[in-house]
Hints:
The chain is mostly helical. Helices cover 61% and strands 3% of the residues.
Amino acid sequence: xxxxxxxxxxxxxxxxxxxxxxxxxxxxxxxxxxxxxxxxxxxxxxxxxxxxxxxxxxxxxxxxxxxxxxxxxxxxxxxxxxxxxxxxxxxxxxxxxxxxxxxxxxxxxxxxxxxxxxxxxxxxxxxxxxxxxxxxxxxxxxxxxxxxxxxxxxxxxxxxxxxxxxxxxxxxxxxxxxxxxxxxxxxxxxxxxxxxxxxxxxxxxxxxxxxxxxxxxxxxxxxxxxxxxxxxxxxxxxxxxxxxxxxxxxxxxxxxxxxxxxxxxxxxxxxxxxxxxxxxxxxxxxxxxxxxxxxxxxxxxxxxxxxxxxxxxxxxxxxxxxxxxxxxxxxxxxxxxxxxxxxxxxxxxxxxxxxxxxxxxxxxxxxxxxxxxxxxxxxxxxxxxxxxxxxxxxxxxxxxxxxxxxxxxxxxxxxxxxxxxxxxxxxxxxxxxxxxxxxxxxxxxxxxxxxxxxxxxxxxxxxxxxxxxxxxxxxxxxxxxxxxxxxxxxxxxxxxxxxxxxxxxxxxxxxxxxxxxxxxxxxxxxxxxxxxxxxxxxxxxxxxxxxxxxxxxxxxxxxxxxxxxxxxxxxxxxxxxxxxxxxxxxxxxxxxxxxxxxxxxxxxxxxxxxxxxxxxxxxxxxxxxxxxxxxxxxxxxxxxxxxxxxxxxxxxxxxxxxxxxxxxxxxxxxxxxxxxxxxxxxxxxxxxxxxxxxxxxxxxxxxxxxxxxxxxxxxxxxxxxxxxxxxxxxxxxxxxxxxxxxxxxxxxxxxxxxxxxxxxxxxxxxxxxxxxxxxxxxxxxxxxxxxxxxxxxxxxxxxxxxxxxxxxxxxxxxxxxxxxxxxxxxxxxxxxxxxxxxxxxxxxxxxxxxxxxxxxxxxxxxxxxxxxxxxxxxxxxxxxxxxxxxxxxxxxxxxxxxxxxxxxxxxxxxxxxxxxxxxxxxxxxxxxxxxxxxxxxxxxxxxxxxxxxxxxxxxxxxxxxxxxxxxxxxxxxxxxxxxxxxxxxxxxxxxxxxxxxxxxxxxxxxxxxxxxxxxxxxxxxxxxxxxxxxxxxxxxxxxxxxxxxxxxxxxxxxxxxxxxxxxxxxxxxxxxxxxxxxxxxxxxxxxxxxxxxxxxxxxxxxxxxxxxxxxxxxxxxxxxxxxxxxxxxxxxxxxxxxxxxxxxxxxxxxxxxxxxxxxxxxxxxxxxxxxxxxxxxxxxxxxxxxxxxxxxxxxxxxxxxxxxxxxxxxxxxxxxxxxxxxxxxxxxxxxxxxxxxxxxxxxxxxxxxxxxxxxxxxxxxxxxxxxxxxxxxxxxxxxxxxxxxxxxxxxxxxxxxxxxxxxxxxxxxxxxxxxxxxxxxxxxxxxxxxxxxxxxxxxxx
Length: 1341
């Protein structure tokens, strides 16, 4: 939940206006410059925090989403689980591409895109604010609560006013979240607006820059453009365009050439109202940056664009950049304002600054603070402008760009924020000079002996290859993935950097060849270690026990990371570290043994263990790479072959992995571009030149995408020309702007915005004139203020505000006159104080205050009189009021205290009287409680004391009586249990503890009774077992023998019974087998008597009977052969197995029984198939009868058409077709009727044609539209979708048909009629559940 909470802080959703939905962000800049940093809808301006616009959606859409959320609660828990939230998303049908997205992308909640799960968690955690407890959104069973989402008056009334406001915000946030996440995640299939052309990062014209789409358009249909890899050629001379005509033609002069070979530096290619600023947060002067191009692991910790945007670890980089930008802008605005005042004398008005976007890019050439093609950051600053200040804003941007590139922005940031992480800003700009790095120099410059030709000035071949690898071959999508997983890579990078630095320290230490002390003779020689071996070249026993740890420690002491260092004076910490490392490395000795061996050298032991851990980590990395690359040899085999050269092995495996990745990239590009040859053919042709192949394929992909983008731009231009109604056609403009379509599109868009703004202002003027009636018509005012419509709108709004203020004051006067009744009417006073309404209101409020004070004094007097009546203080109310005149509050306070004291005294007396009554009831002193209370009036405490003494005497007397009773109980128990001592002896021993004695004797009695019962039960069990087993002795004899050992006797008898039962079962099974054999032989031989008669005759001699019958059977076999052959011929005729009976008899000679058995099986299978076919036909007929209702039941029709089932199916199918046509006709009539009522904008015929085969869906939509129109007409606010309350037969029929169809498809286990009866009045819920069941079955299929 921590990561989710941080993400939610970065994007909490709120509804801030009814006219626009705004997505808040937490990019707050404290103490920002006077530049206003605001975003969102154009009707909303908030300077406190930046905002991002949520896409527009209708209230109907929001209502449908909320109803969908409530309907997705399949278990009725009052909230949405994760799976139910997925069901809600999958059930959204409008627009259709949402449904397609979830059908293709998400089959479980875990598979949902991350933003959907973030939205679910953030909405679920609103439960705490709604009063459901602090832990309501933690644990496994978290649900998105319905509290606040349901339109339930009772539920709303149960909430506090604060919670009601939160609930309203919760409903808005639900719709805002759904709309915002759809906008961000779900792609729109067909873009209708012009794509945004990406700008290259570097100013050099020959450097292909990565595209950074940092400021996505707010239009959800705009898609980012692909990477454009173009190298614009410098124009030799600027060719001026002809003078444009005095018409609103969007033609602009051709820009002057820029770049190398010209006097003009190339500006950043952003829009006219913004600029891009290159910067770095990495100090390249502090490390060997040349290793970036070899293994990218020697880079120190730094922040990437994503972490800058989210202010990871409160780095404040973005804050410093924006504040510095604002301060620099303020300085430049002074100069620009002076220039502006000399001209048209209008003050410079800078519009809003859009949210600043940050992206990762490759550093361009010529930066003093970063080497080329290393890691840099790009900040995009862009303004929102209005047409009036557009030219002045452009001037400011030009001044800002020049100043930033001269290094002024870096100076401002460094002056105001000395501790900033920013190490350079601008191009070339200023920053920490990386060329002061004494570690290494990045060799990417051309050979000095071969200077470049002035006419072909640019980068060397080596530099171009690096640029292609670092820029073109690593698209921004890859950088985004890299940023997302950067933290995992940072840990490995820091480990490698520490190892690299330690290696340098180790090399310095090797020069001294310091000898290590210890039991094993080891020495550091050139950064390696040597073990001492015996004459047979085998390790010594001492070396085998611990030399590996000691040896690794010799080389690894310097390479240990800082976090592994252990303080020498902290023995406990060292022991913990050793134990942890021994567990992690699984060392051959325990931690205690190693600590004993290394006593006094614990730091050395820690170093050895850390080195062992590092070596094991390297082995794990090798195994991982072997598994990834599917190497021809196993990891163990390779590690054995490369023993001592693991780094070399790792290098080879990484190269293999890179080659496999390269091949996969080529396959992907071939699939995307379809170059005419397969990937295998191209790989064979470019063997050894795969980088060149990738470069060519990417160029082809970029070219294909540019062609597609150009077509989209031309289509957008034609649409804009049609909307603006320019004097020139789109084709003429496209011809004039050939190659500069972006500029044309930008100009047309601005022209359209200007027209729309002017139209909006004129509409506002007409509306305000209708409200205000200023004395002139709207047209007259518009003619007077031609070109100054904004000023006219502001003046009219001021006039409106003044009138509204005056009306508000007059309303206040009327209210005060009604309250005070001053003697004149409100209209008379308003006429007297015309223009002085504030003074009139002040006087009336004073009068009202005075009247309220007088009224309050009367109320106080009344309270005093009431208190005097209740307390009777000794003076009358009038006397007290005279004494306390002006101090009535003190008088009321004193009387209230007196009243409370009297009430307390009366309450205490009542308690005492109650105690007296209770004691009188217990003691019965001879007088009633009332008599005693009357006698002791005022002396209740003495009376209670006397009664308590009387109660104590009576209790002592009762104790003596109780003791005698206990002694009698003891005597009776002693007589019953005979404990070995007399009752008197026991009573003497237990004097004062008679209860314990009674308890013990009672336990003894219960134990004796239980023992007697157990013994009786055992004797009964023995007698029953003796009767069943008949062991040879009677039960009494056995009980006498086993007296006291009845359990053993029962156990033995039970075993005997089990053996007898087992023998009886075995004998019964043998006898049954013999009876079955006899029955079989009797069936075969037919001796003239039945099997039962023979078994009765041969009872006990079944073996002899079986022997006689087998002899008889052998004689009969000869006769049966002919019968069997006849049976075979008959079966062959019935089954037609493919061979004649004679052929089969010849093949199965002597095995006629097997042949008969096989033919019988064949006959049974054929019979089963016929039965299955007949059953299938019966099922089809039953289903058709259920659908068509022909007037007879399925059984009656099957009986009538016995043997002609195919004919019956044909007739029923025809009937079904006719009924379907009739139903379709009825649906069409119903649709026509609904179209006449709702007027949806299309004719009934057009809708029927569009929804052919989906008439039920069309009827449902039209019914919803009808219900909404009826609700709107009746003035209801909530959207309720329900069945027509009048019982419209057509709606019920349509719902019934839909239910019948869904039941037939889903087979839920109940008939359609049963379900409709169960869901009577809730048919819509039934349809929803059946659709979900259908969808789930379709997903399973």
